[in-house]
């Protein structure tokens, strides 16, 4: 129930937000959204005094604090702001003004008011009585499928997934401790293993291994 209430609160907030922004979009009268209309005007005013030279009809050299090259056909400026922000920089707008074109022709539709209205065109529909208890009939209950035991011995190994490779365990030799073979196929000389000095269990459990003379003689032989 708590998860359903949380999801419904999120749905309500999104529904109200989209309704508010549809109303904002309906009142937009400019080609660009108000935020980018102000930004465009500020960038155009910044480059009014800059000198612009034409190299070819689509390539320009703009003299600002630093000299930049603007390519209107490929929407490139050497200041890289046009590429990063996808919005014409001051140098590009100065070049556009030089050829007496409209800046809107070089601006992505993403920044237009029409695109803003299309983004919030569809509405989130209300869901009434989401928290009302719904009676579930027994006939509507979906039970898990009945699993029938297959004939034959069940497989002892797991079926590998597609693309999964079987991991092979490496055999190690008890003699030389190397991988790839066992003690029977080892070509190295057998290593000498000194006999253990441990006492039989019946002796160690009955006598003191330090003080009893019988145990001392057994250890020295």
TrEMBL record:
GO molecular-function terms, A-Z: zinc ion binding
Limits of the SWIM-type domain: 68-100
InterPro entries: Znf_PMZ, Znf_SWIM
Superkingdom: Eukaryota
Family annotation (Pfam families): SWIM
Key words, A-Z: Metal-binding, Zinc, Zinc-finger
Protein name in UniProt: SWIM-type domain-containing protein
Organism: Papaver somniferum
